[in-house]
Amino acid sequence: MLKVFSFLKSYKKPIYIALFLMLVELFVELWHPLLMAKIIDDGILKNDLSVVLTWGGIMLGLSFVGFAAGIINSFYAAHVSQGFGYDVRKSLFDKVQSFSFANLNRFPTSSLITRLTNDVTQLQGLVFMGLRIMARAPLLVIGGVVMALIVNWQLALILVVTMPLMFLFMVWLMGRGVTLFRIVQDKLDSVNSVMRENLSGMRLIKAFLRKSHEQNRFAKSSTELKDQTIKALRLIELTMPVLLLVMNISILVILWFGSFQVTANNANIGEIVALVNYATRIMFAFSVFSFLLMNLARAKASSTRIVEVLEADVDLVDGAGSSLQEELIRGHVRFDDVSFQYPDTKENVLMNISFEARSGETVALLGATGSGKTSLFQLIPRLYDVSKGTVTLDGEDIRKFKLTSLRNNIGFVPQEARLFTGTVRENICWGKEGASMEEIIEAAKAAQIHETIVKLPNQYETIIGQKGVNLSGGQKQRVSIARALIRKPKILLLDDSTSALDLQTEQKILEAIRDLSCTTLIITQKISTVMAADKILLLEDGRIVAEGEHDKLLQTSELYQKIYDSQQLEEVASHG
């Protein structure tokens, strides 16, 4: 937990103020029983009203001091806990932004969401209680025992014997609680995962009538969370009855032996009342422990999960070389004997890939599903690093460049057209921050989406729902293409991103892309698209099995000829 609580360093001053005020409140509470004893022995038993009024007034004044200290302490505790939570959450988010795809494979999205929200909230609560009551509780126990020894050391020995036993019980409980609440947080990850998948796939679930199946999945995951939480809370709740039993027995023993001392004139009634008051306060402090233990156990489990993210090694780091100078980039991409396997897997998905895409060329990648086309694309902007071989840009290994500089010169349109909640304009601007309206419209026209946008209710200011739910598949693809084209990239990667478009629209987009004079790599299943490419790469099982122009491959590659013939037959059938 030390790693997480290092974020508190910037809040030293308010922490010290909160702790000082907590000590003032504690001082008031520890002195009350002594003053009560004095009022009883010197005032009530001796019928001296002036003593009662004097010391009663002092008690009242101290109570107001303690009240004010408690209120101000709460203010500072809230300030520190909220600031701490903000800093941890920001640091977590920044760390996640630096993650490679390999890191994201280790931490599922649902787990990261839980860590950024629920786990941070657990730690915020612990910090607040630490400054408000957690530090006060053990000090109240220690101070109560010390003051009890001062009042009557013989009777106070009962508390001295009882405290270590209760402390050992609490330590054992803490160890068990941390383990159980770690499992609870993992089960919460599972529930979040089911909910996320369900909400994102709601249309598909309704279309396939999978409502009952999804309800059963959620019920199973939710039941596991409930059962594990009950198990953890049952253990923690055991503390309260045990502590009350032990402390009440201690109070009875104090009263029993105290009665003998009063009878023998070895103790005053006020002393017995003071001892009972201290025992009651100690009992209250230990009862607070039962509540704190649950939060401490949960916070300990949460801090471990947060530290896992903060200390995760990011395998993709900036190269030691200088940033790319945009005006000097030619966009010449070369793969030299590249092999690649995903992290935590043993088999290569790409094997001995060698080809080059010269500046301004269009290279089309064709192949069956699972042949490695998308994996190859992900190596160019360094979403993953190669396992063997090199990928070069203008003759320089891309691992030597700074990531931001490299990716700023690449326009990437993924296979799944993913849009974000916001306006159409904001989604296109996502490709180039601060782009002018003229640039946005130019990119939209090149992507053949401008005419569609101007027909929307608020044109470019029309709000797009989450993941673009209010747009068709083809419209989402064209907005995604506009988002990439607005960058005027030196390298453009189109990962089957025209699959939902008709041939005429696709050809217009490709013509607009040629005017950009950028190096274009396009994954497609359409022969009509690859025919216009300068070079075609035919992939099968992670290897390039054929390379060349359309006419050449039609004569030399049996596989390419089969693909061509099958699409020709489909076209004839569709027109027939």
UniProtKB/TrEMBL annotation:
Domain (ABC transmembrane type-1) ranges: 17-298
Report the protein name in the record.
Answer: ABC transporter ATP-binding protein
GO CC annotations on file: plasma membrane
SUPFAM superfamilies noted in UniProt:
ABC transporter transmembrane region (SSF90123), P-loop containing nucleoside triphosphate hydrolases (SSF52540)
The way this protein sits in the membrane is described as: Multi-pass membrane protein
Q: Tell me if Manganese is a UniProt keyword of this record.
A: no
Q: Which organism is it from?
A: Anaerobacillus alkaliphilus
* Keywords, in A-Z order: ATP-binding, Cell membrane, Membrane, Nucleotide-binding, Transmembrane, Transmembrane helix, Transport
The record lists the membrane-crossing segments as 15-32, 52-76, 133-151, 157-175, 235-258, 278-297
User: Could you tell me where this protein is found in the cell?
Assistant: Cell membrane
